[in-house]
């Protein structure tokens, strides 16, 4: 007979030997923020474009191609959120965590590179940032930093080994009832 999968282990959001700060960031904070970005890119496309670069944002309607690209961007943000929220919860295997987080670090670098057309000051001039810049730059810096720390092994270790506690009391012979 085939046994049922251990659903409780699959849903466990706390892999062994991974610092709480990583769990909170990768399993909760970042997926929620990515889902918010997906929502904005899909449902508020004009606002999204205005915040990205007001001078080049269309003022008299968004082209069909731009609608499509923003919907695809929203889909990728949603995928990003699901990968962290579900895939990392599905396993406590550090190999899987490291592989996914390495991929996300590469995505962070691509995301930062994508805004270079706004000029190099976009990377450091925080006084000029708007809401989307805080997400595109500062939050990506935070995510990349968390990933670099995780991949460097800081506050990450192998799974805990289960220890068996032995009683120090001597065993007493069992008393059998004779019939």
What can you tell me about this protein's structure?
The chain is an all-alpha fold and 179 residues long. Helix content is 58%, strand content 0%. The protein has 6 helices and no strands. It is elongated, with a radius of gyration of 24 Å. The model has no long low-confidence stretch (mean pLDDT 87).
Percent range for helical residues?
Answer: 55-70%
How far the N terminus sits from the C terminus, by CA atoms, comes to 40 Å
Averaged pLDDT, please?
A: 87
Structural class category: mainly alpha
How many helices? The count is 6
Shape: elongated
Unreliable parts: none
**Quaternary structure type:** single chain
N-to-C order of helices and strands: HHHHHH
Share in β-strands: under 5%
Radius of gyration: 24 Å
**Main sheet characteristics:** none
Total number of strands: 0
């Amino acid at each position: 007979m085939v046994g049922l999968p251990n659903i409780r282990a699959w849903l466990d959001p706390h892999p062994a030997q991974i610092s709480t700060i990583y769990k909170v960031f990768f399993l909760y904070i970042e997926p929620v923020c990515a889902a918010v970005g997906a929502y904005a890119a899909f449902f508020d496309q004009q606002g999204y474009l205005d915040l990205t670069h007001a001078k080049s944002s269309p003022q008299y309607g968004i082209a069909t191609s731009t609608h499509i690209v923003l919907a695809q961007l929203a889909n990728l943000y949603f995928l990003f959120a699901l990968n962290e929220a579900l895939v990392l919860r599905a396993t406590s295997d550090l190999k899987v965590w490291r592989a996914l987080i390495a991929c996300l670090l590469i995505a962070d670098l691509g995301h930062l590179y994508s805004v270079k057309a706004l000029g190099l000051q976009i990377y450091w001039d925080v006084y000029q940032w708007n809401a989307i810049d805080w997400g595109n730059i500062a939050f990506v810096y935070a995510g990349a930093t968390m990933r670099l720390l995780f991949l460097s092994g800081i506050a990450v270790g192998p799974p805990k080994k289960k220890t068996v506690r032995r009683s120090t009391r001597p065993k007493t012979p069992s008393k059998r009832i004779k019939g």
